[in-house]
């Protein structure tokens, strides 16, 4: 039910300009949000999506332009200010208090009071009403910490409804949800839209954007590219608008990846019956020289868990690992590194980069850790390695002394890749190396992986974006519900086939 | 010029020099150094000599803080170390026997090392927050020291032992030289090897470091062992100075002064990047300030008020708010600071 | 639909009915440490009673427990507010000494109690305010900011007087000497003040928006801010409350000992923190109960009494409290690890 352009807009942002030291983050951007529509804000990293949202919610002050909400010119000085005006935001990392009950999180600051104190019974009843209106039947007195992230997100939306939000901003709400949870969320979103709430939706998942949106606004490099009704903007056109160029590179990757792998010799790494109670049922996995093995499955299917057990990040309680045919005991990551296995974690910020160290220190960290603290790698050798990888991977800025925390996500990912390549691994495990980074960096990283595997490196590649898995891998291992359910030859399957396999194989029931 | 101004040791050094200049103006003899029997004396030399225990403790604290930890137990370890050494010397037939004193010192340092192992175990293996893990020993340690001394202040007359605090070697106070040796050894261990940068990595992001193959547990554990051992040596110097083991008074508040010295030296309590030179300057600032306050005729007991003022001034000067406020009074800065906080989130932009 | 994300049968919200135990745990898991503290207290009583042949659980002893630890109870209440926000207040022992000696000096100079007592409370509140402002507006770590408060309080105490000052004011001494008797049981006004402090704190923390904001800040300060709660003033208020409690404790201790003494309360902040932690409040903030802190203080006081009874050295007190602290921390860690594992 696309909203009518003639409807009086709820939010009008005109000529919004925001300048950060040395950067023009937003340059005269217009944005209009109408009641009863789901409006997606699209753009690469650094396009200005978050900045625009923060301008609207009062987190950033604007340098030029005006914000009109419900026909009234407004300047918000804080998120609380914007909330009071009916603009609520639900972030990716749910901003609630997990130490409090579900009901309290919904009602915090708006508890029902009787006399001097809070009337908890009435407060929980009110919370239950709000949750119920979104189709959620939860125990309002249970701790929020005991709920899944998906439920927490829905609780956050309920909270926005308590605040009587006219505008609901959903910033990457689906990145950690599985399909069923996304459906539940979308049901709630459609419901709210039909009640006349204006919804601003931001997501990296194109399919979801097309599934839920009525209208799309595209930003690039801080400027407005255009606003389009969803029906008038096909996907390829959207991507072209977002990145400003065609993606011809990726096709060449696919063709180079689909080659025959010699699986007659000894695998580089072979895991047999690797498992841990409550985490992963025992699974087998082998990777040969020059092979890219993709792991596919839902979030929580066991794909991350499998590689963490292999790498020694978590301790397996079952199974054995062989490296080049010889048994290896990998109880700690450093044991794996000694056996020339490297793992780049899915959680770049918390398990990857060391933010306050420089690019150079981050790159050298893996090598140095393997050498031990007593044998410091000479400065000259460090500089050579760092320079080599900054150039080879195109890290920007190409300054070895820049703090990694100041780099964009894509460049941080490149630094991590450099750290692992510098340890000269024979098996490289990449868990979601392309999540949350811009399209250009995604292509760079995929190209590098294809190139390295062609030179003989064994790779395990995990990604939620199945196209990437199919593009890079020769063999895809599929997991579901903490169990390996099978292997596919990527030359013999396509996206639909893989999805169907993930959803149905071995169960016979439709998803 | 701006490079010097921005160097993180700039402000600590300026503070120290200012203090010295103020002292010099107030009492010109402050900078005077006299030579007697080939040994140096003077207010500055006294400051260097008296700073030794705090120096040792603060050096250990620097490394612990770099791992994102804190060691509240150093004062208690000092008390235990002094109690152990003096009880051994007191119990020996000849307190001045060199062998007895050596044994006493070695045992006291070993006991301190074991206490450091205990702290490190609680933090790195059991996974207890450092502030609490070391609070346990901070409380219990003094009790242990009291038990060792039987609740009394054990006094001894032992020339070899007294030498630690009041002796002179190559014209300089022995205690000061112990401090210098500690600084040099620690600097070499941390910076000539990769231990320093690995410690910083662990302090900034423990999990990422572990996954990168760093022996996080060993590094954290080692930091507490180092801190405990250095505190033990500090306890010996303290006991040697007063020629007694006073379990109640030894090292009281030293953990707080040590933390203050580390912070004054520009190392953040959030862990990560640390500066040994900064800590040395921080210790000297505290010791000079202490000497200044005493010179001004303030009762030693009242001096904490001045330290409170110093802490407040230093933290306000270091705080982002003041710097921003001085730079300009505009809304843009609020945004900039927030953008710095949200840096990692902005990547989704 | 060619979805890149993948399908899974929608997870219904109406899963199998959770058992009563599960419901209880998902609702009240956070109370377990406090229950554990209460259990320890009961065990201590039973153990002491058995060990001391029925001579321990007497009305006199239990009444004295409250009387002897009233000042610590008040400090622990204030500390609970601060720790719940995720902060810490190291200044309370010194502030208590400062306000105590300040009050003694004023009363000695003939200032009426009606003026002296409010000045004591305000003095504590002022130092708390300073700490709160440093923490909130200058981004100073609570540890360091309250360290400044510790130094300030201690130094000011010595500036007021270097030696102890006897108090002869009747109104203040009345707080201590009055015994409201019920059989062999008794309550002093200081005890009533302490219990009233607990009751008011419990009300504020559980039944007011201010109190809930304290918990929200401790749970996730960033979230609390984005939820539109008044984070800044609430955090400052927590330190002001702690400072005021320290001022009140100064009054109670002065009444209790009949004198102000600048060396009072050295290390008392550690006792207060220990009591709060033993009572089940997490030092990371957001979880805990003021009633738990009261139990923690009683555990502390009971151990002290038992040691006195046994005629053991006071140094054992420090060792036992240290050991108990360790025990509780390990237990808490296990509980937290479990609740995280359940997710």
Summarize the structure.
Chain A is of the alpha/beta class. In chain A, 36% of the residues lie in helices and 24% in strands. Chain B has two domains: 52-297, ABC transporter involved in vitamin B12 uptake, BtuC; 305-343, no CATH class.
Distance between the termini of chain B: 36 Å
Number of helices of chain B: 18
Q: Number of helical runs of chain A?
A: 18
**CATH topology (fold) name of the largest domain in chain A:** Rossmann fold
Query: Quick one: CATH superfamily of the largest domain in chain A?
Result: P-loop containing nucleotide triphosphate hydrolases
**Helix-residue proportion of chain B:** over 70%
Any idea how many domains of chain B? 2
Show unreliable segments of chain A.
Answer: 507-511
State the helicity of chain A in percent bands. Answer: 25-40%
Mean pLDDT of chain B, to the nearest integer, reads 86
The count of DSSP E runs of length 2 or more, i.e. the number of strands of chain B, is 6
**What top-tier CATH class of the largest domain in chain A fits best?**
Alpha Beta
Question: If strands are numbered along the chain, what order do they take across the biggest sheet of chain A?
Answer: 6-9-10-3-11-12
